[in-house]
Amino acid sequence: MQSGEIFRRTGVMSLSNVQHIGDTVKLHNGVRMPWVGLGVYKTQEGEQVEQAVLDAIEAGYRSIDTAKLYNNEEGVGRAIAQSGVKRDELFVTTKVWNTDQGYEETLRAFEASRKRLSLDVIDLYLVHWPVTGKYKQTYKALEKLYKDGYVRAIGVSNFLQPHLEDLLAEAEIKPMVNQVEYHPLLTQPHLHGFCRDNGIQLEAWSPLMQGNLDLPLLTELSDKYGKTPAQIVLRWDLQNGVVTIPKSVRKERIHENANLFDFELSEADMAALNGLDENKRFGPDPMTFV
Q: What are the residue positions of the site described as Lowers pKa of active site Tyr (predicted)?
């Protein structure tokens, strides 16, 4: 499928309705999620994560993505408290780790994450990986948390189509989000289409390919549009209707990653970027990781 076709079918992305770092997409339950957020994977607890979050909020970001695994939820919470931005203007995501999966275990893990973040309500809670034999009970716990009002949206991370089909066969509440590795070398078009057809918002982790941006096409498009290769990739995410959460601890890069709304990639250039797909992962394969 060409990127332009995705663009037309989803109807979610155009320069007329997305013009700012804080602009949002409506999830299937009506909750609005920012298109761009700050990822804090491998950002150190303490001053480093606090400063990164504060710099991002200053730059206009309103979405922060963390996880129990990242060991920096407390720092994220402190930065949010220090930011001076109203809580209801921010969108905070965290995730239940594999060793905490299971129904009762997940409820306990959520409460621990909530306390570390110093937040009464989490905006999005995700099952971090599809742990065989456990992820359905884990997701049932997420459904309870959602029904009880402790989370505004629930979803999954690293779920491929077989995992989603298995989960949807029993789930009471359809996941609102599926966060997966997604970048020009791993476009996962069938998974993207399945999520779109089922009203599940796709979100990209590792959108900048862990810094592996030295591709000739990215260099060419960077020169053409007067943007960095990172900005080209992040803009490509958005025009494909994918939420993106680039990670950085450098203030200038955090600001650079927010500067995506004064240009638009042509349909031909979108198709060329989609054509880079090699099914190449920089992270683990969900079918063999757990």
A: 95
* Sole residue written with tokens 């029993």: 170
For 286, the token pair is 């969900």
What would the pLDDT profile of 6-42 be if each residue is shown by its tens digit? Answer: 333 344 444 445 678 989 999 999 999 999 999 999 9
Answer whether 34's CB lies under 8 Å from 23's CB. yes
Every domain of the chain and the residues it spans: 3-279
Quick: pLDDT tens for 146-155.
Answer: 999 999 999 9
Annotated ligand binding at 28? The verdict is: no
Residue 283 DSSP one-character state = S
Percent of the chain scored above 90 by pLDDT?
A: 92
At the second CATH level, the architecture of 3-279 is Alpha-Beta Barrel (3.20)
Of 41, 61, 70, 225, catalytic: 70
The answer to whether 257 and 244 are in contact (CB under 8 A) is: no
